[in-house]
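Title: Comparing notes on inverse folding

I've been comparing how different people in this forum approach sequence design from structure. To keep things fair, I'm posting one structure and asking everyone to reply with a full sequence. Here's the target:
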């Protein structure tokens, strides 16, 4: 479930949030961000910018679509964490994702709706 972007601004900001949240190197944050968003690596993400119609951001997704997206992103994040067991060892992938929100334009405003089935929470 690849998330397409017209520019790198949202994934770049997501990588900055992840770097701060997990205290990891910038390059690792870029790679993990790209992987969680459905790309092999940051270079593939950048090469695809603007080539496809931009995907809806989390705020514009319906509750079912958002749930599927977050499950996909969590599974990809688990793959990253398995490769680096010392990173985020005391925190679950779900809680990292709840704060990080790599495919949201305004991640802090919408974090409460991650585990909710109430459509009002996902707006």
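Reply #1:
Here's my take.
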């Amino acid at each position: 479930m690849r998330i397409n972007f017209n520019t790198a601004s949202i994934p770049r900001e997501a990588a900055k949030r992840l770097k701060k949240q997990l205290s990891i190197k910038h390059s690792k944050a870029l790679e993990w961000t790209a992987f969680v968003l459905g790309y092999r690596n940051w270079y593939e993400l950048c090469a695809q910018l603007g080539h496809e119609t931009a995907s809806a951001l989390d705020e514009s997704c319906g509750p079912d679509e958002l749930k599927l997206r977050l499950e996909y992103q969590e599974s990809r994040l688990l793959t990253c964490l398995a490769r680096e067991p010392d990173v985020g060892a005391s925190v679950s992938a779900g809680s990292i994702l709840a704060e990080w929100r790599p495919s949201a334009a305004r991640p802090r405003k919408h974090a409460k709706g991650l585990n909710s089935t109430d459509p009002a929470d996902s707006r």
